[in-house]
Design a protein that fits this description.
Blueprint lengths: L3 E6 L4 H4 L13 H17 L5 E4 L3 H13 L7 E3 L16 H8 L1 H9 L11 H21 L3 E6 L1 H11 L4 H5 L9 E5 L5 E6 L8
Helix pairs in contact: 2-3, 4-5, 6-7
Bound molecules: 3-phosphoglyceric acid (3PG).
Organism: Rhizobium straminoryzae
Pfam families: His_Phos_1
Catalytic activity: (2R)-2-phosphoglycerate = (2R)-3-phosphoglycerate
Length: 211
Amino acid sequence: MSGTLVLVRHGQSDWNLKNLFTGWKDPDLTELGVKEAETGGQALADYGIKFDIAFTSALKRAQETCRIVLEKVGQPDLETIRDQALNERDYGDLSGLNKDDAREKWGEEQVHIWRRSYDVPPPGGESLRDTGARVWPYFMTEILPRVLRGETVLVAAHGNSLRSLVMVLDRLSKEEILKLNLATGVPMVYKLNADSTVASKDVLGDMSGAH
Ligand SMILES: O=C(O)[C@H](O)COP(=O)(O)O
């Protein structure tokens, strides 16, 4: 066994609350989002986690979640690396549109395909495969080597940038990834083997409400 990788999606943002496609736009956490980050952080504290380093995206909602989690585990000053490689999938022309309005305009099925399929990009934006094509190399060069050295690493990022990682870690097919939704503020604790396969995965919270 090597180290531990903790993935956590940011808490609810203003635009999650307003049901808007967000992507690379940069809204703040809502009050509930702050609470979700606190709950996730407390779950990690109760689990007994101490991190060696944290990674987050270039977007406020993930950075703020990261900060809250680190505060809850008693490591407010931990080194934190921010990189846009971990940003949310770019939703392109959908960014800022209401998700229900989009369903009315283009149909439920098409919007689901844009949101959850592996390789169909929304207009002007990134597919999950495109997102993975920037997240995965960053993970391989900056994050995974630390975990394989035995470190405990926090990654606070986004629904789709994390789905692209979970797809590979959990060996999900293109069909399985369609059904995977990550709840806001719920940490996933992966212990990795020396060959970087997953030895164990603990989900510290309820993923069932994610949509
Ligand atoms: O960018 C967004 O709108 C959300 O963070 C994730 O959206 P999704 O659940 O529609 O992929």
